[in-house]
TrEMBL record:
Organism, as annotated: Fagus sylvatica
GO cellular component terms attached to this protein's record: nucleus
Function: Promotes lateral root initiation and development, independently of auxin (IAA) and abscisis acid (ABA).
Name the record gives this protein: F-box domain-containing protein
Signal peptide feature range: none
Amino acid sequence: MSRRVRRKVARKGKEKVVLQSYPEIEDEVLDLERQEDVDWTSLPDDTVIQLFSCLNYRDRASLSSTCKTWRGLGISPCLWSSLDLRAHKCDAAMAASLALRCVNLQKLRFRGAESADAIIHLQARNLREISGDYCRKITDATLSVIVARHEALESLQLGPDFCERISSDAIKAIAVCCPKLKKLRLSGIRDVHGDAINALAKHCSNLTDIGFIDCLNVDEMALGNVISVRFLSVAGTSNMKWGVVSHLWHKLPNLTGLDVSRTDIGPTAVSRLLSSSQSLKVLCALNCPVLEEDSSFSANKNKGKLLLALFTEIFKGIASLFVDTTNKGKNVFLDWRNSKNKDKNLDEIMNWLEWILSHTLLRIAESNQHGLDDFWLKQGAALLLSLMQSSQEDVQERAATGLATFVVIDDENASIDGGRAEAVMRDGGIRLLLDLAKSWREGLQSEAAKAIANLSVNANVAKAVAEEGGINILAGLARSMNRLVAEEAAGGLWNLSVGEEHKGAIAEAGGVKALVDLIFKWSTGGEGVLERAAGALANLAADDKCSTEVAVAGGVHALVMLARNCKFDGVQEQAARALANLAAHGDSNSNNAAVGQEAGALEALVQLTRSPNEGVRQEAAGALWNLSFDDRNREAIAAAGGVEALV
């Protein structure tokens, strides 16, 4: 296998200031010639703090360690108003070590149950926003402790993966402990009972944004009691009683936006909600089969009300929200973001639309449904590209993940839809993704690199990525200390290295050394990054010149180490393939002998020929076959018991 694409699959079970993207990986190295040394400590404090703000947390810590003055500036409150722990293993000890910096922490993003347990040790009593993913193992007890310690909380979001161990008891605790709550979005809860929703209505008078997404059961009648709600999403939620919904929810006095996407709502309920609600402005019903199957349904009956569905013109519909008729076509989101005439109510609607559209489009892409080609080519791809330019970081990430996902037809066979991939390219998506990959935010780097990797399976897109400078960017990301970023970057180099015309460019960009270093850096506990790095090296090793660079960079030792020690089939297969390609150049270089002389190489390959995995066996046998053309290797292979594998 020479390519790898990855689908991110979900299994069912206050204001934010975003800085401009600052490149961590520069396209050029500036040659600054100075006649005298620069005293960096003489820089004004404001300049140093601005420099800190352009770095990720790891680099901030490194910079802070250089001197006492910068150590003090490095813990300035303005640098620690938000914290993203998703790329880090955060336990109680790590959280306690950060506590001094987190006194004024306002926003926190975390990943997984262990990090959730550690949140209270940050002692960030002034937290306003908490957002978590990979929440499948988070329990009622953990969530209850978190909200009890953070009474000032205004926003709580857990998802998009399913919160299988959270129940209505935790929702009641949220209601009692967080009276200032304005936004609550939870995914994959089994049952959201009426008493929990009524507790929210009683205690959280400022709660304007509610999302019970991909839940099994939600009490529709109780939701009708939350009179403060302006934006409500029950997307993907099963067992909804739409008759009850249509008779009750239209009475909610402030309901402005309603998201019922990916549900079984029908035309009758949609029509009643649109015609009866005095406050409703937007009803989003994307991917609702019952509604879509009714060919007689008209989306234009209710003037002043916007219905978004797969069969409507989404960009045109959103443009109708604006008085200014110049907000038309695919630039409607961009025109809104750049508008000087701000309307608070409209801004809230647009921010909500960005969030629910990014979530729903990703879910639709993950489901890989048939019959949606027309939607993706005409609207879906353009929507994702537009959302990728959002000021909301989580929207940007989901849009990039959506692009990485919707092009994949068959993950196992590394197949993508060429038409969809080229649609992204035609609409300027490659440049947007590469710009996102240069952000200092590692979450954006990771998702953008994943999208670039998957799109690059298409030869035309791969050519565009190379022409736009993408190889240098990916080679730089492959050096990241963040494993997730490095893994996706290695995947991009793997797919780009399929093309003969890109191999030399990867080597010139330092990609060979970066890939070899990845193997040593993540030799344990990183099978994803190891498989991608070994796969890319295998492709590069098929080129005579690049194969020499692989050997010079220490690639022989790295690949033999994987063949000997790694227990994952995918890694073993790619390591064996790389060794086979290194040994395939005959007398043109000395790699054949170098592989044979590497301690344990032949024994490891012989052992892999006995693997239960057919791909591993074939690649190991191919490596031994190539190595056997050297007389010394042939004798060593026989001594190691490899004759049977070759026969």
